[in-house]
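Human: Respectfully, please carefully check these C-alpha coordinates:
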Amino acid sequence: MGVRFIYALTILVLLVGTLRGEGTILDFFKLRKSLGLLDSTVERLQASNQDISEEIRKIRSSPDYARKVLRDKYHVKDPDEKIIFFAD
Protein backbone atom coordinates (compact mmCIF):
# COMPACT_ATOMS: atom_id res chain seq x y z
CA MET A 1 0.00 0.00 0.00
CA GLY A 2 2.80 2.44 0.89
CA VAL A 3 4.68 1.92 -2.39
CA ARG A 4 1.55 2.46 -4.48
CA PHE A 5 0.83 5.65 -2.58
CA ILE A 6 4.35 6.97 -3.28
CA TYR A 7 4.03 6.11 -7.00
CA ALA A 8 0.61 7.80 -7.20
CA LEU A 9 1.92 10.88 -5.40
CA THR A 10 4.93 11.05 -7.73
CA ILE A 11 2.73 10.83 -10.81
CA LEU A 12 0.41 13.47 -9.39
CA VAL A 13 3.32 15.85 -8.73
CA LEU A 14 4.67 15.31 -12.26
CA LEU A 15 1.25 15.91 -13.79
CA VAL A 16 0.68 19.07 -11.77
CA GLY A 17 4.13 20.34 -12.71
CA THR A 18 3.45 19.60 -16.37
CA LEU A 19 0.10 21.37 -16.32
CA ARG A 20 1.56 24.42 -14.58
CA GLY A 21 4.36 24.54 -17.17
CA GLU A 22 7.18 24.46 -14.63
CA GLY A 23 9.11 21.87 -16.58
CA THR A 24 8.26 18.41 -17.64
CA ILE A 25 9.98 15.11 -17.27
CA LEU A 26 10.90 15.43 -20.96
CA ASP A 27 12.67 18.70 -20.18
CA PHE A 28 14.60 16.88 -17.47
CA PHE A 29 15.79 14.21 -19.90
CA LYS A 30 16.73 16.83 -22.50
CA LEU A 31 18.76 18.66 -19.88
CA ARG A 32 20.47 15.43 -18.83
CA LYS A 33 21.41 14.73 -22.44
CA SER A 34 22.74 18.27 -22.80
CA LEU A 35 24.75 17.85 -19.61
CA GLY A 36 26.36 14.70 -20.98
CA LEU A 37 27.24 16.47 -24.22
CA LEU A 38 28.69 19.43 -22.33
CA ASP A 39 30.70 17.14 -20.05
CA SER A 40 32.26 15.35 -23.03
CA THR A 41 33.03 18.70 -24.68
CA VAL A 42 34.70 19.96 -21.51
CA GLU A 43 36.82 16.79 -21.28
CA ARG A 44 37.88 17.13 -24.93
CA LEU A 45 38.77 20.80 -24.48
CA GLN A 46 40.72 20.09 -21.29
CA ALA A 47 42.77 17.45 -23.12
CA SER A 48 43.39 19.88 -25.97
CA ASN A 49 44.39 22.58 -23.50
CA GLN A 50 46.82 20.19 -21.84
CA ASP A 51 48.39 19.33 -25.22
CA ILE A 52 48.80 23.01 -26.07
CA SER A 53 50.32 23.74 -22.66
CA GLU A 54 52.83 20.94 -23.21
CA GLU A 55 53.68 22.33 -26.66
CA ILE A 56 54.23 25.80 -25.16
CA ARG A 57 56.49 24.32 -22.47
CA LYS A 58 58.59 22.53 -25.12
CA ILE A 59 58.89 25.68 -27.23
CA ARG A 60 59.97 27.78 -24.24
CA SER A 61 62.52 25.23 -23.03
CA SER A 62 64.18 24.36 -26.36
CA PRO A 63 65.26 26.89 -29.00
CA ASP A 64 65.85 24.03 -31.46
CA TYR A 65 62.30 22.78 -30.99
CA ALA A 66 60.95 26.33 -31.35
CA ARG A 67 62.87 26.70 -34.63
CA LYS A 68 61.51 23.35 -35.85
CA VAL A 69 57.92 24.40 -35.07
CA LEU A 70 58.42 27.73 -36.84
CA ARG A 71 59.80 26.00 -39.93
CA ASP A 72 57.32 23.11 -40.09
CA LYS A 73 54.11 24.71 -38.94
CA TYR A 74 54.49 28.35 -39.94
CA HIS A 75 56.92 28.02 -42.89
CA VAL A 76 59.39 30.55 -41.48
CA LYS A 77 62.79 30.46 -43.18
CA ASP A 78 66.25 31.63 -42.19
CA PRO A 79 67.44 34.90 -43.80
CA ASP A 80 70.05 33.14 -45.94
CA GLU A 81 67.65 30.46 -47.26
CA LYS A 82 65.95 30.54 -50.62
CA ILE A 83 62.70 28.81 -51.52
CA ILE A 84 62.71 26.77 -54.71
CA PHE A 85 59.49 25.65 -56.38
CA PHE A 86 59.46 22.63 -58.63
CA ALA A 87 56.99 22.31 -61.48
CA ASP A 88 55.04 19.07 -61.70
Summary: The two ends are 85 Å apart (CA to CA).
